[in-house]
Write a structure and sequence with these properties.
With 219 residues, the chain is mostly helical. The chain has eleven helices and no strands. The chain folds into three domains: 5-46; 53-148, no CATH class; 154-203, no CATH class. It is flat. It holds the Pfam family Dimer_Tnp_hAT.
C-alpha cells in the first residue's frame, strides 16, 4: 500500500527505534484501507473503463505495442471519434498503419524505448520516394487528436485554486464579471505590478452585457 514518501520514511524510522512495532504499523495500514476502497468506488463511478479510448491511448503511448501489430486496423479509433470520418480516408489510414508495422525499425532507429513524442516524430519525418509524407493520415490521428487529449483535470483544478485566492473570505462580494476580469488579468499578464496600461486602455470603459440587455452603448 502506497502511503507517500514522508509516511514511509517515518515508518522506517519507527521500525528502527522500536523493537517490535509491527502490530501498530499493521493497524495503521488497515485504518488507511477504507480510504483506498472508497477512492476506488468513486473512480469506478466516474469513469467508464469499457470505453475503447483506453485501448487507443495504450496503443499510441506504447511504441512497442504499436510495432507488434497486435491491433490490425484503426477502425475502432474512427468509430470512437466519428467526426474523423470527415477528414480521413479510413482505408488509407489502415493502409498506413500496416505500412508502419512493416518498417525496418532497427535500421530507421525507431526503438520502442524512445520517448513517445520522439518516436512518432521520427516516424512522421519519413517520406515517400516522391518526397511526400509517408504517414499523413496516421499523423492526423495520433499527433492532432490522441496526444493532445487532456487526460488530467489539473488545468481545471488550477483555475479553482486561483478562484479561491481571488474570492477570499474578505472579498466574498465580488461580482462575477470582476472575478472573470481578475482571473483573465492574472492569466495573461505575468507581472501585474510592473504592467503599464496604455492610454487607450485607461480611457476604454468596458460594459458587460447582462441577460436581456441590448449591446448598444457598450464600449
Amino acid at each position: 500500500m502506497y502511503l507517500g514518501v514522508s509516511t514511509q520514511e517515518s515508518i522506517i524510522e519507527i521500525e528502527k527505534e522500536i523493537p517490535a512495532p509491527k502490530t501498530q504499523i499493521t493497524d495503521f495500514r488497515k485504518s488507511c484501507l477504507p480510504f483506498y476502497i472508497e477512492a476506488i468506488k468513486q473512480i469506478t463511478q466516474r469513469f467508464i473503463f469499457s470505453d475503447p479510448l483506453y485501448d487507443i491511448i495504450e496503443l499510441v503511448t506504447d511504441p512497442q505495442k504499436a510495432q507488434s501489430f497486435e491491433t490490425k486496423d484503426l477502425t475502432f479509433v474512427v468509430n470512437r471519434f466519428p467526426y474523423l470520418r470527415n477528414d480521413l480516408d479510413l482505408e488509407e489510414l489502415n493502409k498506413e498503419w500496416k505500412m508502419h508495422a512493416l518498417l525496418d525499425f532497427t535500421h530507421l532507429n525507431l526503438s520502442p524505448n524512445l520517448e513517445i513524442l520522439d518516436y512518432w516524430n521520427n516516424v512522421f519525418r519519413l517520406k515517400k520516394s516522391s518526397g511526400e509524407p509517408q504517414f499523413p493520415c496516421l499523423k492526423k490521428v495520433i499527433i492532432m487528436l490522441l496526444l493532445v487529449l487532456p487526460f488530467s483535470n489539473a488545468s481545471v483544478e488550477r483555475v479553482f485554486s486561483q478562484l479561491k485566492l481571488i474570492k477570499s473570505d474578505h472579498r466574498n462580494r465580488l461580482a462575477t464579471e470582476t472575478i472573470s476580469a481578475l482571473m483573465a488579468t492574472k492569466a495573461n499578464i505575468p507581472n501585474a505590478m510592473t504592467f503599464e496600461p496604455t492610454k487607450l486602455m485607461l480611457k476604454t470603459r468596458i460594459k458587460y452585457k447582462k441577460d436581456g440587455e441590448s449591446e448598444e452603448g457598450t464600449n
